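Materials and Methods. Structural model of Toll/interleukin-1 receptor domain-containing protein. The 528-residue sequence of Toll/interleukin-1 receptor domain-containing protein from Lentzea miocenica was retrieved and submitted for structure prediction as follows.
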Amino acid sequence: MAIFVSYSSSDGGPAASAVVEALRARGFDVLWDGDLTIIHPLSIPAWMESAVRDRTVLVIVSDDYLKALLSNDFVERRGVRYEAGLVRHKIYHHGGAHGCAVLPVVPPEVDANALPSVLQQLVIHRFDPSTRNGEEDLVRSLGVLEVGNGGGAMYPESEGVHRTRMMLAGLEACPPSSAQAYQLAHDLVEHGEGDLELARAFDSVVGVAKAHGDVRLVSRLSEVCLKTLSSTLPLKGEGALKAKVLVSGQAWHLLREHRFSQAASVAEEGTQIAKKYRDLYTAARGQRAHARVFLHMATEALPYDREFYLRNCEHLLILATTLFRSISGPTSEEVGVCASLNAEKQLLRYEMTGERAELTAAWERSQVAEGLLTPGTEPYQWLTVLQARLSLAARKYNEGKEFVTDVIATADFPEVVARSRQVRADLLLATREKAEALRDLLDAEEQFRELGCDYAAATCWWTIAKIDSTKLVSFRLSTADVLRLEDLAPDPRDRRLAVLEHEHRSAKRLGRRSAPDWACLVDRVQHE
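The predicted structure was written out as C-alpha cells:
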C-alpha cells in the first residue's frame, strides 16, 4: 500500500519518523519529507500534489499542523501550510462518508477532542512514538482501507463487516434517488443492529432514505444506530456520530411525525454533543433543525404563544447561519437553506399580522435563497413549493400553480411532490376549481400515507372531508359536524379516526342511522 506521511517538521518530526519506521518495517511503501534528499524532485509543490493525490495520507497531528490546516494566515512555514491545504482538499472531495484515504495520527500530548471538524469526521488513531502503542490499530485500519480500494488486506475482516462495506460501497456508487440505493439502504438497516460500520456511514444511508421520503426507514435507521453507539465503543474521533444521528435522523422523523417537543429536545441534545466534540457543521445543522421545529410549533400554537416560538426560531436561525458562513462561506448551499427557512418564517408572520411588509420581506428572502441553492436539488424544490405558497398569499394564483406544477413534473423526491400537490390544491380551491383540487388532495393523501407522514396525510384527508366527505365515506359531513370535530380534536388524525369509527359503527346497524355522538367517538379513538 502506498502511503504519504504529512506533518510539520518543526514539531511533528519525531512522531512522523517513528510512524515511517514502523510502517516500512511492516512492508508498506511510505513516502515522506525525509526522502527529499534522495529523490531531489524538480518541483517540491508538484511532488506534494502527486503524493497527496495518489497515496493514502497519514496526517501527523501537531500544533503547527493544526494552525496550517485551519488558517491561510499561518505563514511561518509555507510548506506545511500548502501541504495541509492539499490534504484538506482531498478530504472535501472524498465521495461519501466511507473509506476516506486520510487518517489522522494523534500523539499522546495532543487532545483528540480539540481537533477541528475537518479531522473529527475521520477515523482518528492514537500513536505513541516512544512506545509504539497504537501501531497495531493503525496497521489494521490501513489494511482494511486497502480492501476498500481493491487491494489485499493484511488482516482479514469479518464476514459481516465485509458485507456491510460492500453494500455501503454499492449504495454510495448509486444516485440517492435510485431504486438500487433504496433497496441497499433497507437491507443495511434490516441487518445493521450492532454494526458500527453502519453508524459510521449514517450520512450516506440517511441521505438515501430522505431522498425517498421514507419516514419509517429514517426512524428505524436512527434507532439502530443509536442502539449500536450506546452498546459499542467508537474509535477516537467518532464521539460526534451520535450527534449526527440525533440531528439528521431522529429530529427529522420526529418532526414529520408531529412530535414537536421530542424533536426540539433531540435537536438541542444533538447540537450540544456536536459542540462538545467541536463538530461545528453538525452543530449548525442542529441549530437549524431546532429552528425549524420552533417554526412548526409557532404555526400551530395559540396566538399568544406564537411570538415566543418565532423569537426562538429567529435566534437559532441567526446562530446557524453565522456558523455556516464561518465554515463554508456566505454563498454556500447551507446558507441558502437557512435563507429559505427565514422566508418561511416571514410568511408565517404575514399570516399572523396581514402586514404586506412581511410578505415583501418573505419574497426578498426567498429570492436570496434561490440565488444560493442549486436547481434540481431537494432544497431548491422545497424553496419552489414555498414560492408557490407565497404566490397564494399574494393572490397570484396562476403563478403559484406554475411553480408547483413544475415541481410535480420534474422532482425526484416523493415528499416534495406530495406537498406540491397539497399546495396546488389550495391554489385550485382559491380559484374554485374544486374537482381538480380534490384529485390533487386524494393523490397527496395517498402519497403521504405511503411515506409514513401520517399527520400530513390526515391533513389532506380532512380538507377533502370538509369539501365533500362522500369521496371518503358513505355519508356527508355537515358544517356543524365539521365545526364540532375541529373543536373536539385539534389533531386531524383523531378527526379522521372518529369519522371512520362512525362509518364502521353505522355499517353494523340495521335500519336508520343515528346522529353521531362526536364527543364519544373522539374520546374513544384518542384512548384506544
